[in-house]
């Protein structure tokens, strides 16, 4: 089983077949190593075995050709090796298999032992005893030789079975994983099922906290503080206004504001009205913002002065603009009561937001995430990170980045306070560290690059520090020993986060793992043909479960390709 259609490995040749008369009785090092190529395409096992036999037979005519010559003829420039695995097939006697044949062959001599060495990461020796085969592997750490021999035995058994009963079976379909390991990879590591209110919309988690403690602090931004009750009332009035303007479930509503309580009010209002919020960071390039608005085609836009300036008059004239900075809002007299999702026809299977990818691998794509996916994420992270009503969560991520949704649901799903630092603080690590300490922040999600650039990254640590957005270096993680460190991984298409890893106190690894899947999430590492790869091998990550998004907005072909 392999991602590659062609595999090249080295094989050891006896070297005496074409060495002339008497070569079989002459002492000396005749053996040679040359490359062999296998095609792992749709060719059946019988045809593949015959082809391989023919290639090996042809190779015997060149058994004295040097490996350096083969390298030059291959077009693979040194020092890149032609192959990294070696197969040594040796004929032996049945007596040797029993462990007593060596002394008989070397009469009068005592065999004390021996040690084989290899210059390759993997060397597999096959001992042909006539009626049985023996396998010996030499491998580089951390791979286990026993595992390699076990894989080889499993493949040989499948090959023999296929040759007898299904000779047209493609050779690439011969699995190398024994049943126990396959079950462990596909099932045991993905036992993440957990009960959660999948029928609930994300803003209902917030409203639940409002009922519990309406006077508790919900938002802190510089000198302004809003309680859960105040925030809910403001969001409700705006939500009723949006409903009156025609907002319906699954309808995109753009929102472009600076980091402020009004930004939070706007997000909650759109959710309560049944719309899908499309976050636009006014700090992003205007051209990117215009492309997003053009693709999402929202009828309504919530903004402030910074949003107006970033979008420009051309965009503003194409949508209905609602200015959240107005001193006398037209929705001030609207009801402060929670809109009823049933009246709106809103369910947890409707969209909560559409967030656009960075576009680092091409054109930015609008990822459509439903309410139930965000509910699962919020409840999972609250449990994993120990977030409670006494917690203080910093809202660091750019509003246009999906981690901003992660931070909002982490706080509002648990009754915690959400702290919004000014952009000037976010962009300077020394000022941010002072902010985290002065505000007694308990939970922060920060990019490793920010910590890496800091003279003393430990100052940026909160009680729980979540690293996200890029792979952190092991040295950085060890330097943050004063905090509880978590590495979070996940694409936007899997609702922000799919796996988490909690750093142990004695971590001494060279690579920071991405960890295990969160609740109701499954991850699979597969090869190019969709088969699971062995534990520790390289493959492509597939993610399933409650967090998988609906797809890409206006991109049905790409959705069909990526969401299987």
Structural write-up:
Helices cover 33% and strands 20% of the residues. With 564 residues, the chain is α/β, with parallel strands linked by helices. A 5-stranded mixed beta sheet has the order 2-1-3-4-5, covered by helices on one side. Strands 16-17-18-19-20 form a 5-stranded mixed beta sheet. The chain has a 4-stranded mixed beta sheet with strand order 7-6-15-14. β8, α9 (261-273) and β9 (276-279) form a beta-alpha-beta unit. α8 packs across α9 (261-273) and α14 packs across α15. The longest helix is centred in the N-terminal third of the chain and has 21 residues, at 145-165. The radius of gyration is 31 Å and the shape is elongated. The model has no long low-confidence stretch (mean pLDDT 90).
Count of domain modules: 2
In terms of DSSP E residues, the strand content is: 15-25%
Tell me which CATH architecture of the largest domain applies here.
Answer: 3-Layer(aba) Sandwich
Main pleated-sheet profile: 5 strands, mixed
Domain AMP-dependent synthetase/ligase: 206-553
GO molecular function, one term: catalytic activity
Pfam family, one: AMP-binding
Domain Condensation: 4-186
SSE map:
Layout: E1 6-13, E2 32-39, H1 45-60, H2 67-74, E3 85-91, H3 94-97, H4 101-105, E4 122-128, E5 133-139, H5 145-165, H6 179-186, H7 202-212, E6 217-221, E7 224-227, H8 228-244, E8 252-256, H9 261-273, E9 276-279, H10 286-296, E10 300-303, H11 305-311, H12 313-316, E11 320-323, H13 341-344, E12 351-356, E13 366-370, H14 371-385, E14 392-394, H15 403-412, E15 417-419, H16 423-426, H17 429-438, E16 443-446, H18 448-453, E17 464-467, H19 474-479, E18 484-489, E19 499-502, E20 516-517, E21 521-526, E22 540-545, E23 551-552, H20 556-562
Helix pairs in contact: 8-9, 14-15
Protein name: Peptide synthetase
GO cellular component, one term: cytoplasm
Domain Condensation: 4-186
